[in-house]
Design a protein that fits this description.
By secondary structure, the chain is mainly alpha-helical. Helices cover 80% and strands 0% of the residues. The radius of gyration is 20 Å and the shape is globular.
């Protein structure tokens, strides 16, 4: 157990997660559905398999998959498919709100509902215990933080000209973006449930000599495959409806290479959050392990807002708007820890 190195590893994953959307700005002549699906191939199909092959003892991955209970594999895929709706709309929320606003709202709700939903499903009375009251208070604080950030976005919309908005976020749409981000945050919480469903797979991996640092890698294969199916269905539908399936073969060779490089880079950066999260959480002592998910979400929120500033998403906003945004971020980060404390 080494809490400091554990948090540092989770922080490395957060840098990847908060940065994954940046390479999309280098993609040319492709519709959103085309480059989103391309990064999904790298993030949800190729990376989980390659990392598992690298970090699971040689020759043991197939036996692990074969011996893992079918129920665990199916449930991991099921929650992955549900998360896929969140992952899909997560991309849309960034499309309409930008890196800072989109990730803050979606990730804050992801942290909150990832903790709130299980006791609600099991029928627990959250007001009958201190832990339940803390959970509800944390979720209420999450909503408050999101409201403050949403207010900052509203102020930004009033202060910036239409030209400045388009320069910062090409398709900025506050109301539509917030609704999508709320849905994305709720559905994205299913990823944590996928990890819970995949614990029997982790136990088999450990029995086959897998380093505890990498015990979650086999589970990720199933969770992310479920998410890929959801995204493939929707993006494939858009490709056909909008005739953007031509994107994959109508551009020049140089543009195709450029787009594949940057979308695959985005996919690998996205995947690294869960690779390093698995490593970091394995180093946290039991008393801190419950906060692993909150640490990941809080760092993602903080780093995504740094990117938002670097990408000039708030250029032209007043000092007052920046202060409101900062207050909302602080409330949101604090709420993730209160939720997990509950």
């Amino acid at each position: 157990m080494n809490p400091v190195s554990g948090i540092l590893l989770i922080a490395l994953g957060s840098i990847g997660a908060a940065s994954f959307y940046v390479p999309f700005k280098k993609v040319r002549e492709w519709a959103w559905e085309s480059y989103w699906l391309s990064q999904g191939v790298a993030a949800w199909l190729i990376s989980p398999l390659v990392f598992a092959l690298i970090f699971v003892p040689r020759g043991e991955l197939l036996p692990i998959i074969s011996e893992a209970p079918s129920s665990a594999k199916l449930m991991a895929m099921f929650f992955g498919a549900l998360w896929g709706f969140g992952g899909l709309t997560f991309g849309l929320s960034i499309r309409y709100l930008g890196v800072a606003l989109g990730q803050s709202i979606a990730l804050g709700l992801c942290a909150a509902f990832g903790t709130l939903i299980p006791p609600l499903v099991s029928g627990d009375n959250l007001f009958s215990s201190t832990s339940g009251i803390l959970t509800v208070a944390g979720v209420a604080l999450t909503v408050a933080g999101i409201s403050v950030i949403g207010f900052a976005g509203s102020l930004k919309g009033r202060e910036m000209s239409d030209e400045e908005k388009r320069a910062a976020v090409k398709e900025f749409a506050l109301k539509k973006g917030i609704l999508i981000a709320v849905f994305a945050g709720i559905m994205s919480a299913c990823f944590n449930f996928g990890f819970e469903a995949g614990k029997p797979i982790e136990e088999i991996a450990l029995a086959h000599g897998t380093n505890p640092l990498f015990q979650k890698n086999p589970s990720l294969i199933f969770i992310l495959f479920g998410g890929f199916i959801t995204n493939l269905a929707y993006c494939g539908y858009l490709n056909i409806r909008n005739k953007t399936y031509r994107d994959y073969f109508s551009v020049s060779g140089g543009t195709l290479f450029n787009n594949l490089f940057f979308t695959f880079l985005a996919g690998i950066l996205w995947f690294l959050q869960f690779h390093f999260f698995g490593m970091g959480s394995s180093k946290l002592p039991e008393s801190m392990a419950v906060f692993g998910w909150s640490i990941l979400m809080a760092l993602n929120i903080a780093i995504s807002n740094i990117w938002g500033i670097l990408l000039n998403e708030w250029k032209g906003s007043s000092r007052k708007t920046f202060m409101v945004l900062l207050l909302g971020i602080i409330i949101l980060i604090l709420s993730t820890f209160i939720v997990k404390l509950g």
